[in-house]
């Protein structure tokens, strides 16, 4: 009698639960999952995307306009969702178990760790002292009090894979000569008027351009491209005191950060090569020259590289 009565009670209870939940079935019964709240901004097949994930995807971008900020967040969240969907599809196909994926995964982890180490070094670099800022402004009048803006005749072309092409520019002193040279090598280029502002350029390059003979050309790298410039006119547009201090502070902080990163990362690399690395003799690289560790640090972390140096003769080759 007791067993039977208990069974009836359980059955009745189950029926009542199903009746009450008819309009709001839990997910395991085929109902719609509850919308995420709080720090969870979306759920993709059980994978939570958090507010921290979203902020990381935004990379610090924060427009002051609330509507723009909302639109930016929605685009970033859409990217996160689509990437998670594609990642889930790859996992379902077993692509995360392949040897190639394991190699690429380790490479991505190592790169991220190296970049995080670099960022940690950069975070500890103090702001430049006011006295240093004032000295820098006084020593670089062509950027500040006598700020130069050059109107130039400019050729732009993709950086050639053969360094001999750049070396071939060295004896050429006019834009027309360089245009003829590139045409002869069947290298496509564009030619148009442009302006170059000393603000934003390496101070060493600015100083070298100012000293160049009138009519000479100079070459500067621009990402994956090369810019050949022939100066047509020079304008002086002084930078205000407030803007000068702001720009000088940022430039010096960037320079100090580059130096600190190269110094400390270079030290890690040089010590590690001496005590922690063993090469198969058939694959061992040549002995690096002095100072190579600092340069290798930038390449290993994809960090900032030193700014381009001054022109040699009439051309500043990349």
User: How would the global form be characterised?
Assistant: extended
Number of H- or I-type helical stretches = 10
Major sheet: arrangement of strands? 4-3-6-5
Average pLDDT level: 83
Beta content: 5-15%
What series of H and E elements makes up the topology? HEEHHHHEHHEHEEHH
Please provide a written account of the structure.
Strand 1 and strand 2 (47-50) form a beta hairpin. The chain has a 4-stranded antiparallel β-sheet with strand order 4-3-6-5, with helices on one face. Helices cover 50% and strands 14% of the residues. The longest helix is centred in the C-terminal third of the chain and has 35 residues, at 241-275. The chain has 10 helices and 6 strands; from the N terminus they run αββααααβααβαββαα. The model is unreliable at 6-25 and 303-318 (pLDDT under 50). Helix 4 (99-123) packs across helix 9 (241-275) and helix 5 packs across helix 9 (241-275). The chain has 318 residues and is α+β, with helices and mostly antiparallel strands. The relative contact order is 0.10. It has helices at residues 2-20, 51-58, 66-92, 99-123, 130-139, 163-167, 175-184, 203-211, 241-275, 292-301, and strands at 40-44, 47-50, 148-158, 190-197, 217-222, 225-236.
């Amino acid at each position: 009698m007791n067993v039977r009565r208990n069974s009836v009670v359980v059955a009745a209870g189950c029926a009542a639960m199903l009746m009450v939940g008819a309009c709001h079935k839990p997910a395991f019964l085929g109902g719609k999952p509850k919308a995420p709240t709080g720090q969870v901004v979306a759920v993709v097949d059980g994978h939570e995307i958090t507010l921290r994930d979203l902020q990381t995807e935004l990379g610090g971008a924060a427009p002051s306009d609330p509507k723009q900020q909302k639109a930016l967040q929605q685009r970033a969240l859409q990217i996160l969702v689509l990437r998670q969907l594609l990642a889930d599809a790859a996992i379902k196909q077993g692509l995360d178990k392949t040897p190639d994926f394991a190699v690429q995964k380790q490479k991505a982890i190592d790169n991220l760790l190296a970049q995080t180490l670099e960022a940690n070094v950069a975070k500890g670099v103090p702001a430049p002292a006011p006295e240093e800022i004032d000295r820098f402004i006084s020593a670089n009048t062509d950027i500040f009090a006598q700020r130069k803006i050059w109107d130039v005749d400019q050729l732009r072309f993709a950086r050639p894979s053969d360094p001999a092409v750049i070396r071939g520019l060295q004896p050429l002193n006019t834009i027309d000569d360089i245009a003829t040279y590139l045409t002869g090598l069947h290298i496509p280029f564009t030619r148009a008027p442009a302006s170059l502002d000393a603000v934003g350029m390496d101070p060493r390059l600015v100083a070298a351009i100012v000293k160049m003979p009138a009519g000479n050309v100079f070459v500067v790298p621009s990402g994956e491209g090369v810019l050949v410039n022939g100066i047509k006119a020079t304008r002086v547009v002084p930078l205000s005191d407030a803007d000068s201090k702001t720009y000088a502070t940022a430039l010096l902080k960037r320079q100090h950060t580059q130096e600190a990163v190269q110094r400390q990362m270079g030290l890690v690399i040089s010590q590690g090569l001496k005590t922690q690395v063993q090469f198969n003799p058939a694959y061992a690289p040549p002995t690096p020259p002095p100072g190579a560790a600092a340069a290798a640090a930038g390449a290993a972390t994809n960090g900032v590289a030193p700014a381009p140096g001054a022109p040699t003769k009439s051309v500043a080759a990349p």
